[in-house]
Amino acid sequence: MSAQLGSTFPVKTPAGLAELSRSYYAGQHWRWRLVQPLRPYICPFAEVIDLVPRDSQVLDVGCGSGLFLLFLASFDKLRRGVGFDVAEDAIATANVARQRLHDPDLLHFAVRSVEQGIPHGDWTVVSAIDVIHHIPPPHQPQFIRDLCAATPPGARLIIKDMVTQPLWRATANRLHDLVMAKQWVHHASPEQVESWVTDPGMSCVHRSRRDMLWYGHWTLVFQRKADA
Ligand SMILES: C[S@@+](CC[C@H](N)C(=O)[O-])C[C@H]1O[C@@H](n2cnc3c(N)ncnc32)[C@H](O)[C@@H]1O
Q1: Ligand 1 pocket, Cβ-based, cut-off 6 angstroms
Q2: Is residue 164 part of a domain?
Q3: What's the CA-to-centroid distance between 152 and ligand 1, angstroms?
Q4: For a Cys staple, 141 with which of 43, 49, 196, 207, CB 3.0–4.6 Å?
Q5: Residue 96 belongs to domain with CATH number
Q6: How far is the CA of 51 from the centre of ligand 1 (A)?
């Protein structure tokens, strides 16, 4: 556990992840200290962490304040992690938080928008957690195709987002984002996202659905063939 924080062994329960989250954002603006430790109770991070193999080189698209990459570092999943997000305050927070890792240089965060393009690199994992619903619907199919194009041969693309059905769960999340992000978001179903992946080199290798409190989540993993 080279990159974990402190001396305690991290535990992948919501409470254990919340404790890690508190340690990453200690001393930062109250908004991050309040909200980020609550996210493991409403977002299935443990499941998504388990989808990342050890020694991964991860590009996390729309990384926010870096919570997912920080978790991956703490669970010793990373050779390297790069995250980008359009929100400058989130990236500034991530850059302070990564200093709390034993090896801060494991992670790199940058301000960048999806519209500027998804950076290509030697990623073994590309992830987008709760980002699609922030992208305007007419641009969502191209966003998914751009994620695929940035996924190298043999690498996997992990997408986690919020359900469209039942309507009351989708509405609960829309109200959440209206309060938290001040944005009326547009969810895409996993079936829609799968239909947008037209790249013959990509195949869907994992589908899951999980409710946490009133939030409904789906996760898809696509794998690019080693020779495609
Ligand atoms: C619900 S947050 C999820 C953050 C992070 N993935 C996580 O799970 O902790 C959605 C993130 O997407 C980012 N985002 C929305 N539209 C974006 C865009 N066009 N380009 C880059 N990031 C974007 C937002 O700034 C926000 O940080």
Answers
A1: 62-64, 67-68, 85-87, 90, 113-115, 129-131, 134
A2: yes
A3: 22
A4: 196
A5: 3.40.50.150
A6: 20
Query: How far apart are the C-alpha atoms of 177 and 183, rounded to whole Å?
Result: 6
Residue 9 lies in a domain: no
C-alpha 62 – ligand 1 centre gap (Å) = 4
Inside any domain, residue 2: no
CA–centroid distance, 192 to ligand 1, in Å, is 20
The phi and psi torsions of 160 (rounded to 5 degrees) equal -120, 130
Domain count, the chain: 1
Cα distance between residue 189 and residue 211, in whole Å: 15
pLDDT in 10s for each residue of the chain, 228 residues: 444 554 467 899 999 999 999 999 999 999 999 999 999 999 999 999 999 999 999 999 999 999 999 999 999 999 999 999 999 999 999 999 999 999 999 999 999 999 999 999 999 999 999 999 999 999 999 999 999 999 999 999 999 999 999 999 999 999 999 999 999 999 999 999 999 999 999 999 999 999 999 999 999 999 999 998
Give the separation between CA 149 and CA 199, rounded to whole angstroms. 8
Ligand 1 atom closest to residue 135's alpha carbon, by position in its atom list: 16
| Half-sphere exposure in the Cβ direction for 97 (13 Å, CA) | 34
Residue nearest to ligand 1 atom 8, measured at CA: 129
Q: Count of H helices and E strands in the chain?
A: 9, 7
The model carries a pTM of 0.96
List the domain range (segments joined by +) for residue 172.
14-224
**How far does residue 113's CA lie from ligand 1's centre (Å)?**
9
